[in-house]
Amino acid sequence: MAIDPDKVHEFVNKAVGDLGAAIGAALVVIGDKLGLYRGLKEGPATSEELAERTGTAERYVREWLAAQAAAGYVSYDAEAGRYFLTEEQAECLTNEESPACVLGGFQSMVSAVRTSPKVMDAFRTGKGVGWHEHEPDLFLGTERFFRPGYNANLVSSWIPSLEGVRERLEAGATVADVGCGHGASTIILAKAFPKSKFRGFDYHRPSVEAASERARQAGLGDRVRFDVASAKDYPGEYDLVAFFDCLHDMGDPVGAAVHVRESLKPEGTWMLVEPFAGDRVEDNLNPLGRIFYSASTLICCPASLSQEVGAALGAQAGETRMREVMNRAGFRHFRRATETPFNLVFEIRP
Ligand SMILES: C[S@@+](CC[C@H](N)C(=O)[O-])C[C@H]1O[C@@H](n2cnc3c(N)ncnc32)[C@H](O)[C@@H]1O
Predict the structure, then answer these.
(1) Which atom in ligand 1 lies closest to the alpha carbon of residue 182?
(2) Where are the beta strands (DSSP E) in the chain?
(3) Euclidean distance between CA atoms 264 and 171, whole angstroms
(4) C-alpha–C-alpha distance, residues 69 and 47, integer Å
(5) Most buried in the list 79, 197, 254, 257, measured by CB within 10 Å?
(6) Pocket perturbation via mutation, ligand 1, pick of 154, 246, 299 by most ligand atoms within 8 A of CB
(7) Roughly what angle, to the nearest 10 degrees, separates helices 318-328 and 253-263?
């Protein structure tokens, strides 16, 4: 069959955009870590002025600014010879608390790219690459990537979508946040529900230490505690167990679900938050699915394959596969409580 030159042209055009995005990702991380975006937010600047403001070398900053302007990540006033951030660029590139902030996403994804040779080896052997085998930028980037979304949705929309849960938290409940990472979700909940007690568990010790430090800084006292434990052996009995973006990373999701059932008090609820996905591959062939499937290839599936069972549900498992996990674990109640463009939220009870 003859090649259609227009389709080749279309493909190459798309790949040119993608190549710019791929190499530009490292520039975003540099701009974030060296304070270049924050420096530019102070006001329009030439490369000399921005270098002066940020204590960086002008020749590098000049090239970085031009690349960023070509990407549309900063703006350029050619007449004045100065670069600046629009309000919208500043929101996405300097406001850590905004749901539109993209810095954590770039930090975690560039980190995953740096670890990709380990994953490439694993393609050959079928072995896993554990969460703990990644760089600290993945852990911090994930926290920064997810926290604004939890801030925007968790207390105002996800908790109220679960039957009777807000009332119990307001009255004083015990809560476990399993696979808590740096504890962003735990701390948001603890601040919102001062009569409740929270325990965060994660198998990754450095993440548990970071979470403990965050809780200390937030002044939450002994209402919040973080410990190293796996999803299959964390201690205690709870009114609410929460898993945020982590069940699919686990080797044995059914085993974890069985343990959740055992750890719930009578009338207790499990809130399961997973990445947004349709059930079929073809439902997820869109820009978000591209990000999730890629992260799943480099991070989530290898993490699951590094643990016992190695179910590797993947970050695009979808509702039907989650329901199967819950059925196998003996849960009878499973409901999609709510969703956002990025997440599915399930309410699960025995
Ligand atoms: C994508 S991160 C999500 C972290 C956190 N829940 C958040 O939303 O920011 C997945 C987390 O699951 C944890 N994890 C993976 N397998 C686990 C297991 N079997 N038991 C406990 N935690 C686990 C990892 O250490 C990691 O912190």
Answers:
(1) 9
(2) 75-77, 82-84, 174-178, 197-202, 224-228, 238-244, 264-275, 333-339, 343-349
(3) 17
(4) 12
(5) 257
(6) 246
(7) 60
Write out the two tokens for 195: 């009569």
Quick one: CA torsion of 135, 137, 143, 149, rounded to 10 degrees? -120
Kindly give the confidence (pLDDT) of every residue in the chain, 350 residues in length, as a single tens digit, with 9 standing for 90 and above. 799 999 999 999 999 999 999 999 999 999 999 999 999 999 999 999 999 999 999 999 999 999 999 999 999 999 999 999 999 999 999 999 999 999 999 999 999 999 999 999 999 999 999 999 999 999 999 999 999 999 999 999 999 999 999 999 999 999 999 999 999 999 999 999 999 999 999 999 999 999 999 999 999 989 999 999 999 999 999 999 999 999 999 999 999 999 999 999 999 999 999 999 999 999 999 999 999 999 999 999 999 999 999 999 999 999 999 999 999 999 999 999 999 999 999 999 99
Q: Is 142 in the pocket of ligand 1 (CB under 6 A)?
A: yes
Handedness of CA 50, 56, 58, 62 (dihedral sign): negative
Q: Whose Cα sits closest to atom 12 in ligand 1?
A: 179
Distance 249 CA to ligand 1 centre (A): 7
- Expressed in angstroms and rounded, the spacing between residue 143 Cα and the centre of ligand 1 is 11
Nearest to 29 by CA among 145, 95, 112, 107: 107
| C-alpha closest to that of 163 among 341, 279, 337 | 337
DSSP string, 284-314: G-SHHHHHHHHHIIIIIHHHHHTSSS-----
- Chain mean position to CA 272: 14
**Ligand 1 centre distance from Cα of residue 181 (Å):** 5
Cα 243 to ligand 1 centroid, rounded to whole Å: 8
Degrees, nearest 5: CA angle 139-143-147: 170
